[in-house]
Design brief:
The longest helix has 102 residues, at 183-284. Helix content is 77%, strand content 4%. The strands form two sheets. A two-stranded antiparallel ribbon has the order 1-2. The protein has a two-stranded antiparallel ribbon with strand order 3-4. The protein has a domain at 47-179. With 285 residues, the protein is mainly alpha-helical. Helix 2 runs antiparallel to helix 3, helix 5 (62-81) packs antiparallel against helix 6 (84-111) and helix 7 (118-133) crosses helix 8 (135-143). A hairpin with a 2-residue loop joins strand 3 (162-164) and strand 4 (167-169). The chain has helices at 3-10, 15-31, 35-42, 49-60, 62-81, 84-111, 118-133, 135-143, 183-284; strands at residues 151-153, 156-158, 162-164, 167-169. Residues 171-198, 248-268 are annotated as: Disordered.
């Protein structure tokens, strides 16, 4: 088991299964004596709902993701060549592809019983756009291992800690000035963060409830088994007491019988000698 194996597994799971599986893999690593691997696994962040939706898209539509990222290569080449006409054509194509893939991501999320909200779909679109501009983000999107979504302004993604080769790496940031977010965007971001916190809390609550129910069932089963064992012990103890009484009676009977046998044998031997003496007198007469 390597960190790359665990990353690939965890970020392909439903978010509700992430924490429990991460804990299990970290425990396996510790049991194998690999503390560094266990520490690295524990440090893996649970993906946001929007990041999970992008990962889902990458794993279920890899050809579409590859086509999108090829478009990103073409855009970067056009920028290097300062080709305005080509950039305009590619920019129109980019928006069409991002919109289509965002819609596909929403369909996949619904198929997996996690319908995407408008906010989640916006974040998915932002992340796909960022992947077109930044090769590091593109690699994460292609692998389907995003822990969080990415925003793009200028040439650099913001707010991402990437997972590559088992190590955490911060993507390059743009030195271009950022536009100040509007009050509406700030409120939307706060709502998204609150929603994510609620989702994480509810997921953790569900996992804790499941663990509690499993532990409760195990405790009830153990109590039933203990009661059965104690009942069996009581029954065996009663049988043992009865058997000991029978042994006592049998030992008394055996002792009495042995005494009677000894007495009878002595009587037999006396009678035998008497008979021999009588036969001897008969023969003399």
């Amino acid at each position: 088991m390597t960190i790359d194996d665990v990353v690939d597994e965890l970020y392909g799971l439903d978010p509700g299964d992430f924490v429990a599986t991460r804990t299990e893999r970290a425990s396996q690593a510790r049991a194998d004596g690999d503390r560094e691997l266990a520490k690295a696994i524990t440090a893996l962040r649970k993906p946001t709902v929007a990041a999970w939706t992008v990962n889902l898209l990458a794993r279920h539509a890899p050809a579409d993701i590859a086509a999108l990222l090829d478009l990103g290569d073409a855009l970067r080449a056009a920028q290097r060549q300062l080709s305005g006409e080509k950039l305009r054509a590619l920019g129109t194509q980019r928006q069409q592809v991002v919109n289509a893939m965002t819609k596909r991501a929403g369909e996949l999320a619904a198929e997996h019983d996690r319908p995407a909200s408008d906010q989640v779909l916006r974040e998915v679109g932002q992340t796909l756009t960022a992947a077109l501009a930044d090769p590091e983000v593109a690699d994460l999107v292609r692998a389907g291992v995003l822990p969080t979504t990415v925003t793009y302004d200028g040439f650099g993604p913001a707010g991402l800690v990437a997972i590559t080769g088992g190590k955490a790496a911060a993507p390059k940031r743009s030195s271009a000035p950022r536009a100040q977010p509007s009050a509406e965007d700030a409120a939307a971001k706060r709502r998204a963060e609150a929603q994510q916190e609620l989702d994480d809390a509810e997921s953790a609550l569900a996992e804790a409830r499941s663990a509690r129910d499993v532990a409760e069932a195990a405790a009830a089963s153990a109590k039933t088994e203990l009661d059965e064992v104690e009942t069996r012990i009581d029954r065996l103890r009663t049988e043992l007491e009865h058997a000991e009484q029978q042994r006592h009676f049998a030992r008394t009977a055996e002792h009495r019988a042995r005494g009677e046998f000894t007495s009878a044998r002595s009587q037999f031997e006396r009678m035998q000698r008497w008979a021999e003496r009588a036969r001897a007198r008969m023969s003399q007469d």
